[in-house]
């Protein structure tokens, strides 16, 4: 990424213990001798001054003493509570190793134990029973701050582990870290929020140590009014910022994003982030096969937030890139859920959510199809009849893409595009090595979790791309924030996905990875942000007056990097 060419200078009003206890400004042993004298730190620190390299070495060695992922997670959380620059520098130097510790899958374990782990609180807790004071509570946290990004959850559908109540605050703080680590957004300008509307998790309702509102989830109009009260506060006090909806239940997720998209810059990673990174993967794959998006037949196994988000994103890209109608694009999709293929007959029985109805198949098309004892049209029958070129899994049903399914697909497709995206790896629809074997090395693959390279029949190693949302959502957010757009438009998201696809190693090597290596995620997301800003300027929704040819230069100047500045004491200086 792009490091500052000059050491930044800051005027700080904090002194002594207050300065050491502020993670934004604390340098620990890196305070210079002059700064120690000026800020009253001489007697509060050991005498030796360390640079960031020595601090990172010490912190990494201490981290390695922890023998479990959750213990490492706790150590890193403690480090973040003390010193932001050291925390983000350490993470950036060990990006691939430590991202799974501070994010998925380890963060899911931490969230599930939220009420049983003693940690310093962070973020904003807005509880349904305290909504009368919501504005005061909101301002208490945000007054005097520049808030560019709000990451908010109601914690109904956390990281594949479901309803976690007030513990959902930690998925917001984890997402915020990724936005900073990979997207370069200033952590001081991010607000993490949990909307505590109760929980339907019986174990939490019966846990005497649970520290959230121990009540069944509020739903219906009361829920909508509560969420809207929060959104109105954001729009009132921080109108240009981005609101990231995280891990809302599938019905609320689609409803909220649809309602607020015309009113404010909003983003749902489970829907749009998953859709965008999958779009980029498919774009890369079809370029390898020398095809186009509308020339494919798509079977998506799993029609929840992720599956529907992927379908909508692929469809919208065809409309935007290839100029076909939504109706034409909808006909290319076959969605299979726990009730089988989504058809008009299934909808008549109430088995298809409203959001999925554009993709349901007409009844006459499937007359004579084989069904199971419950009358469901299963995945194998769909593959047999549709002959898909793209098979996407977001079902969390392990081994769903078995040898029959994969071999059936490979019969009629020279380079089958197979994307088993379920997380964690134990829930993946097919192991990449098995898919490689069953297709005689012809499959183009990407997964939702990290996997080692697959060995082809000729002995060549095929790298398995991780179709990780973190390859795109920080860049989408950064671009939206930097151009000050009051809307994150569909075309801005498509522009980001197209830029990611352009960076695919497979474009220069047909047997290369479909997506860039995660180690390059910061640079990749910067390029995505540039594409988003350029598109916003093109659409006329950007509120900056940058020329398109200067976007990259302007964006570089605004990236936050974890570097120690030079401090000067000033009673009227920074305090937060």
Overall description:
- The protein has 576 residues and is of the alpha/beta class.
- It folds into three domains: 9-98, Hemocyanin, N-terminal domain; 109-263, 3-Layer(aba) Sandwich (Rossmann fold); 272-285 and 297-316 and 326-466, 3-Layer(aba) Sandwich (Rossmann fold), CATH 3.40.50.
- The chain has 23 helices and 16 strands.
- The protein has helices spanning 16-20, 33-38, 52-64, 69-82, 84-93, 95-102, 106-112, 134-142, 169-183, 202-205, 220-237, 250-260, 269-288, 305-322, 326-330, 344-348, 379-386, 403-411, 432-438, 473-482, 490-502, 521-539, 551-557; strands spanning 9-12, 124-127, 149-153, 190-196, 242-245, 265-268, 298-301, 333-337, 340-341, 390-393, 417-420, 444-447, 454-455, 461-462, 465-466, 566-569.
- The chain has a seven-stranded mixed beta sheet with strand order 9-8-7-10-11-12-15, sandwiched between helices.
- Helix 9 (169-183) crosses helix 20 (473-482).
- The protein starts with 8 loop residues before the first strand and ends in a 7-residue tail after the last strand.
- 47% of the residues are buried.
- The model has no long low-confidence stretch (mean pLDDT 94).
Question: How do the helices and strands line up, and which of them pair or pack?
Answer:
Blueprint: E1 9-12, H1 16-20, H2 33-38, H3 52-64, H4 69-82, H5 84-93, H6 95-102, H7 106-112, E2 124-127, H8 134-142, E3 149-153, H9 169-183, E4 190-196, H10 202-205, H11 220-237, E5 242-245, H12 250-260, E6 265-268, H13 269-288, E7 298-301, H14 305-322, H15 326-330, E8 333-337, E9 340-341, H16 344-348, H17 379-386, E10 390-393, H18 403-411, E11 417-420, H19 432-438, E12 444-447, E13 454-455, E14 461-462, E15 465-466, H20 473-482, H21 490-502, H22 521-539, H23 551-557, E16 566-569
Parallel strand pairs: 1-16, 2-4, 3-4, 3-5, 5-6, 7-8, 7-10, 10-11, 11-12, 12-15
Antiparallel strand pairs: 8-9, 13-14
């Amino acid at each position: 990424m792009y490091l500052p060419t000059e050491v930044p200078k800051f005027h700080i009003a904090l002194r002594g213990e207050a300065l050491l206890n502020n993670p934004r400004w604390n340098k620990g042993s890196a305070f210079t001798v002059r700064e120690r004298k000026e800020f009253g730190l001489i007697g509060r620190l050991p005498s030796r001054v360390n640079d960031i390299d020595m601090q990172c070495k010490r912190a990494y060695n201490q981290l390695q003493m922890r023998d479990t992922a959750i213990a490492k997670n706790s150590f890193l959380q403690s480090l973040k509570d003390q010193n932001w620059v050291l925390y983000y520098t350490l993470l950036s130097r060990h990006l691939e190793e430590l991202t799974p510790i501070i994010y998925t899958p380890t963060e899911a374990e931490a969230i599930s134990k939220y009420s049983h782990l003693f940690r310093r609180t962070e973020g904003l807790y807005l509880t349904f029973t305290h909504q009368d004071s919501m504005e005061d509570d909101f301002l208490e946290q945000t007054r005097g701050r520049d808030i560019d990004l709000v990451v908010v959850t109601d914690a109904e559908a956390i990281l594949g582990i479901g309803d976690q109540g007030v513990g959902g605050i930690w998925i917001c703080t984890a997402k915020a870290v990724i936005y900073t680590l990979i997207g370069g957004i200033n952590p001081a300008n991010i607000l993490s929020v949990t909307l505590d509307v109760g929980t339907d998790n019986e174990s939490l309702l019966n846990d005497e140590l649970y520290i959230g509102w121990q009540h069944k989830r509020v739903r219906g109009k009361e829920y909508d009014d509560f969420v809207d009260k929060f959104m109105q506060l954001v729009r009132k006090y921080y109108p240009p910022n981005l609101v990231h909806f995280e891990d809302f239940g599938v019905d609320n997720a689609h409803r909220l994003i649809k309602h607020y998209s015309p009113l404010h810059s909003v983003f749902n990673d489970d829907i749009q982030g998953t859709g965008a990174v999958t779009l980029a993967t498919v774009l890369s794959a079809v370029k390898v096969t020398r095809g186009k998006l509308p020339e494919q037949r798509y079977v998506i196994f799993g029609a929840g937030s992720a599956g529907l988000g992927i379908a909508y994103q692929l469809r919208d890209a065809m409309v935007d890139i290839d100029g076909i109608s939504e109706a034409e694009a909808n006909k290319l999709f076959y969605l299979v859920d726990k009730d089988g293929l989504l058809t008009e007959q299934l909808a008549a029985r109430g088995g298809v959510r409203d959001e999925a109805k554009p993709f349901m198949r007409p009844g006459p098309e499937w007359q004579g199809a084989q069904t199971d004892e419950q009358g469901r049209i299963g995945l194998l029958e769909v593959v047999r009849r549709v002959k898909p070129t793209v098979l996407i899994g977001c079902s969390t049903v392990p081994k769903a893409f078995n040898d029959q399914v994969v071999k059936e697909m490979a019969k009629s497709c020279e380079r089958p595009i197979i994307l088993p995206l379920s997380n964690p790896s134990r829930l993946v629809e097919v192991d990449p090595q098995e898919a490689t074997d069953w297709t005689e090395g012809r499959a183009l693959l990407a997964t939702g979790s990290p996997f080692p390279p697959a060995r082809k029949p000729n002995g060549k190693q095929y790298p398995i791309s991780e179709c990780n949302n973190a390859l795109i959502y920080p860049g989408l957010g950064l671009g939206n924030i930097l151009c000050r757009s009051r809307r994150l438009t569909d075309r801005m998201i498509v522009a980001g996905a197209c830029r990611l696809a352009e960076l695919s190693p497979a474009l220069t090597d047909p047997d290369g990875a479909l997506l860039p290596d995660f180690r390059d995620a910061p640079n990749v997301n910067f390029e995505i942000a540039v594409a988003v800003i350029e598109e916003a300027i093109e659409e006329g929704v950007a509120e900056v007056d940058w020329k398109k040819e200067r976007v990259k230069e302007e964006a570089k100047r605004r990236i936050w990097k974890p570097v120690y500045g030079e401090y000067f004491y000033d009673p009227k200086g920074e305090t937060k």
